[in-house]
Amino acid sequence: MKKPKLYLIGPTESVLTKRGNRFPNMAKFFVEEGEEVIYYTSNFYHAEKRFFSKYEVDEATQNLGYKLKVLNVLGYYTNVSPRRVLSNFLFSVRLFVMLLFKVSKQDKILLPSRPVELIFFMALLKKIKGVKIYLDIQDIWPDALQIKNKRKKRVFEIYCNTYLKPSLKHYTGALHVAPSFRLWLRRYAKKTPSSFVPLGWENERWSDVTLKAYKESSVVKMVCVAQLQHQIDIMPILEVLKNNDKLHLTILGEDGTGERYHEVINYINAHLITNIEIIGKIERKAMMYYLENKDIGVLPMITSSIPNKIFDYMAAMLPIIVLGDNDSSNFVVENKIGWQCNFNSKDLDVLLQRLNTSDIQTKKNQVVSIRDNFSRDILHKKIKEMIA
User: Fold this and answer.
1) 182 and 240 housed in the same domain
2) How far is it between the farthest Cα atoms of the chain?
3) pTM for the model
4) Which end of the chain offers a freer environment for a tag, N or C, measured as fewer CB atoms within 10 Å?
5) Domain contains 280
6) Whether the Cβ atoms of residue 11 and residue 115 lie closer than 8 Å to each other
7) How far is Cα 12 from Cα 8, in angstroms, rounded to an integer?
8) Mean pLDDT of successive 10-residue segments in the chain (388 residues)?
9) Number of domains in the chain
10) CA-based Rg of the chain, rounded to a whole angstrom?
């Protein structure tokens, strides 16, 4: 009998990219488990809006242990544009045609929840070939895409629904990285099963972290891993910092191109805030060295999700403060690994002033006690069981 193959599809995520490596990690895991993995991606770097060079592609494809197929696509310059829609459509159609002549009924396909065109064409592929298809719900369109123009937003919603409504009910199963994402799936497919499998932290990156007891200090060192995009509202923290020199904030990952960057810099300069440091993009492997001497990780995110940064904090054994009422705050509170607060700076100030050495150490101990449950080594085994 022909050995079944596992097809992983990551249009914007592969060993070529610096951001997002859930699928590359899965590919490595399944290869080590003896699976034959074929990975499809594109030659366009979504995060930097550029094409990968032939040298980058050739270098990345060496010694992977699986086949990496890099498809040439149409590039685009903004996240919300007709050109991006066309690029997604062409990639999805081309991949559909290619797989139509490659996949067998016993094969499995795992793909992300965007673009919506890909979801549609893989559902069509299942109808024709009988292949098993699984959706990894890391993002939810049209909900998550920020479009200020109401007319454009409505058009985009209709466009997404055109692909999603006839497709999701045909999926073999799904994974969701945040509990609220299951509601998105239920909107389109009431019977498609889905399991909560969060993003988790990479064992390879964080294997050398050592536990350090929290020591009372004259300054509480907070860290926020984020580019200052629309969904990250750091302003309440700045309002607290300007009046409290016993706090210090480090922002990791902002290179001056974030949507809120100038707003933040102008506020810092206007109020002469000195207890803050902004560090640009850093290599993933270097993250540990920036977090290991911090006391608390913070997440001021206005959208609902449980992003990678939550697990970076957990991997670094840091307790966490989440602003807002969302998946991340629920996760932190339910697991007793930190605190939740609204976006009111006065309430945040009260919370921070109440924290003492015992509070921080207690939450830190709880992070350590559950940390391994959210390692990717453990989560990958859960995924394997689900798609077996």
Assistant:
1) no
2) 70
3) 0.93
4) N
5) yes
6) yes
7) 12
8) 92 88 96 97 94 94 93 92 95 98 97 98 98 97 82 92 98 98 97 97 88 82 94 96 96 93 97 96 89 96 94 97 97 98 97 94 97 97 95
9) 2
10) 22
